[in-house]
Amino acid sequence: MSEQVAEKPEILLVDDSKVIRIAGRKMLENDYIIHLAEDGLVGWEMLQSNSAISVVFSDLSMPNLNGMELLENIRSSSSDYIANLPVIIMTGHDDSEAMKQVVFDAGATDFISKPFESIDLLSRAKAYARLSQKVVELEKRTGYDKLTGLYNANLLEEQGGKAFSFSDRHKLAISAVYFEIQDFQNCFLSYGKKVAQHVIIAVGERLRKAMREEDIAARIGVAKYALILPMTNRQKAEIVIERIRTSINKLVFDTGKEKIRVSFTTGYAAPDIGSELSFEELLEQADDALQRAISSTTEQVICFDDEVEVIEAPVIITEQDIEQAFSHILDGNFYQIPEQHLDAVMERLSPFMQYIENQKDSETELEEADKNIAL
Predict the structure, then answer these.
(1) What is the average per-residue pLDDT within 57-77?
(2) How far apart are CA 336 and CA 313, in angstroms?
(3) Which contacts of 244-248 are long-range, i.e. CB under 8 A and separated by 24 or more positions?
(4) Please, are residues 213 and 229 in contact by the beta-carbon 8 Å criterion?
(5) Between vectors from CA 225 to CA 224 and to CA 228, what angle results, nearest 5°?
(6) Helices (runs of H) and strands (runs of E) counted in the chain
(7) Homologous superfamily of domain range 153-303
(8) What is the H or E stretch that residue 177 is in?
């Protein structure tokens, strides 16, 4: 009997130096799945969309969101999983002991000095990935989300899989619905962890009240929920979705400074009875529909079978972005300029390049004139 190959732990490495990112990946990629982020903002977005990441290595000095700010976001996250992640700060020679103490007090798990040896990186990755895995396994055993009391992702798969098998066996309709609170990250950053948690709990309570006894509800992300609706076709699923959205839209939260409301983006899948579809594929369809709804500028509720034109929001490039790009050019780190900024940078440089061409043309004309005089 062959042994089952265990999945590799996933690690996030955040550093604005491409050299450090590549070096770290080469040292770890044989034993781990490596995710790379060029700054804290990109790293923070990765953490919120990937619950499989078990360890974070982060630099301190970075643009957009530095290592200290990333650490603060992680430790104050409304997700217990993210808040408890091991975070190893990669320090340089210029980082003082006082700064290390400040970062340690803010919740850093450990430090590693750059340039690092592969054995140092591997030993920390191994130790903290194992610790993180034990925490995940413990949470899976409980089966319930601590904040809302709803199922967690693990129990959703278990109980939802059973409901799906029953529906498939008896040729009954079943639907899967994914909800996500709109602009939750801005809510968290603007009003803090306490308000964010209050929103999550209140939304979970409204979901519970809207459920039938046979329905299955779970919180599967920081601000992401799932609902399995047995014996529910597309038409009935739309009625349930509208009832839940109406209920949640009535919620008003007092932040102490102002009163705010929240709304949902929704994706759902309601396959025809007898469709050759697995439960995992049903969830994937609902998630795909949700991502399309999030990307849409016109639709907040999308069914997997709908054809909706998704218009990408235009990239807004600020003066700070241009200044950062020029700084990268002067430092020889032009590869760090985001691809979507290149056209704007070239547009700014165009008058200067034209000036250089004009100077060259003038010099050429003078040289030709000198030659003619000499002749």
Answers:
(1) 89
(2) 23
(3) 244/179, 244/206, 244/207, 244/210, 245/301, 247/206, 247/209, 247/210, 248/203, 248/206
(4) no
(5) 150
(6) 13, 12
(7) Reverse transcriptase/Diguanylate cyclase domain (3.30.70.270)
(8) strand 174-181
| Terminal alpha carbon distance of the chain | 93
Residues in the chain: 375
**Distance in angstroms (rounded) separating the CA atoms of residues 120 and 90:** 11
pTM for this one?
Answer: 0.53
Residue type (1 letter), 156: L
317-334 residue pLDDT tens: 888 888 888 887 887 777
- What DSSP state is assigned to residue 144? B
Helix or strand or coil: residue 294?
helix
- As a three-state string, the secondary structure of 51-83 is CCEEEEEEECCCCCCCHHHHHHHHHCCCCHHHH
Q: Does the pLDDT value for residue 4 go beyond 50? A: no
Inter-CA distances, 141 with 7, 134, 136, 257, Å: 19, 11, 9, 40
- Going 295 to 299 to 305 to 307, the CA torsion angle's sign is negative
**CA nearest to 144, candidates 135, 153, 136:** 153
Summarised one tens digit per residue, pLDDT across range 125-166 is: 887 877 666 555 555 556 778 788 888 888 899 899 999 999
* Assigned CATH for 10-142: 3.40.50.2300
138: tokens are 């413990």
